[in-house]
Amino acid sequence: MISLEDWALIRHLHRSEGLSQRAIARQLSIARDTVANALASDGPPKYERAAAVSAISEVEPRMRALLMAYPRMPATVIAERVGWTGSISWFRERVRAIRPEYLPADPVDRLEHPPGRAIQCDLWFPAPRIAVGFGQEAILPVLVMVAAFSRFIAAVMLPSRQTMDLVAGMWQLLSQNFSAVPHELWWDNEAGIGRRGRLTEPVTALVGTLGARLVQMKPYDPESKGMVERANRYLETSFLPGRDFTSPEDFNDQLRQWLPTANSRRVRVLDGRPIDFLDADRAQMLVLPPVPPVTETVTSVRLGRDYYLRVAGNDYSVDPHAIGQLVEVRTTLAHVSVSRAGHLLAIHDRCWAARQTLTDPAHVATAATLRQQFQAGPTPSAGDHLVRDLADYDRAFGVDFTTGAATSDGEVA
What we know:
The protein is α+β, with helices and mostly antiparallel strands. Helix content is about 35%, strand content about 20%. α2 (about 20-30) crosses α3 (about 30-40). The mean pLDDT is about 90.
C-alpha cells in the first residue's frame, strides 16, 4: 500500500510539475499502476484492517436484543443471560460502547443568563478534615455561590448544613460579597433548603425578605447548576493543593484572601474576568432589604438546676440566677447567647466540635455563692425571736421563790 507521503508527492508532481505517469514512476522507482491509482483516488490512502471474528461477536446480537428491551440492564446480568464465559472486563467495555445506542435521548437546552437574574448555590465538602478544637476534626460544608452572568464566585465554610446555618451563610455572602440580591437563587434538593417542592420556613422567610425567588432544580439535572459545580471543582484543584488549615477560621481567612485571585482569572466564555462583569450583574439585581432577614435560631427553654443549655450538640453555661426561669437562646454562626427580658445572661463563642461543655468561670463562682446561701438557710431577723419573762413560768407552776412554797393546783398553763 502506498504511503500518505508518496501519494501527496505523486499528485504534486503530476498536477504542479506536469510530469507524466511514466516519468513519476521512473523518478520514484514505483510501479506505474501505483501512480495511476494514486491519481485516480478521491482521497488519501487509509489503512483498513479486516475485521477479525472475536468471541464477543457471536453473542453481540443477543446483547443488542437485551439492550433493546432493557436499555439499563447491568452488564453482569447481560453476560449471564447470553452465557458469556470470557473476561468480564472486556464484556463490560463492549456493553458500555453499544448501550448509548439504546438509551432514550435526553437533550439539554443551552441556558441564557441575563445580568442579575440568578445565582447558583451548592455545598462543597473539601476532603481535608479541619481541626475544630478539643482534639476533634471534621469535614465541614462550604457554601459556594456563583453569579450566573458574571461567573463571580463567593464562598464560606459553615459549621453545619442545618437550615439556619445555610440561611445565615447565604445572607452573609449576598450582603458582603455581592452587595445585592439576584432575582433567583438556584439550589438542588438540599434537605436544609426544602424537599418535595416545599421550602423550609426559615428559607421561605429569607427569600420573602429579600424579594427574590428560590428555585430547586429537578433531580438528575446537574447541567442546570453547571457553573457552581465547575466552581467546586476549581476550588478543589486550585485552592486546596498545598494548603494546611488549623481551624475553620483559618480556612475562611485563606479562602477570603484567595477568592480575589479566582475572580480575576480570565474566563473563556466571557472573554474577560468575572470581576469586570460584576458591576453589570449587580446593576440588574435587587437592592438589599432595609431590614436584614432573620438569620439566627431563637428558642425558649427553662433553665435547669445545673445551669447549662444544650445547643447543636454542646452544653453552654448560663448565669445561675435564672434557674427555673424561661430564657431566650440565640444561635448564630459565631455566637451562642442567652438572655431574659432583655438582660444578657451568657454569651459564648459557638463551638464547632461535638459533645463538649463550655463553661464561663463567672457562672461557676455565682453558683457556688448561691449554693452556700441555700445550704445556710435564711438569716433570721431581730423581730422574729420571742422574748418572755421567766417569772411567767414560775407563776404558771405556782412556785414562789421568795417563800419556797408551791401553790399550783396541778394545772399547767
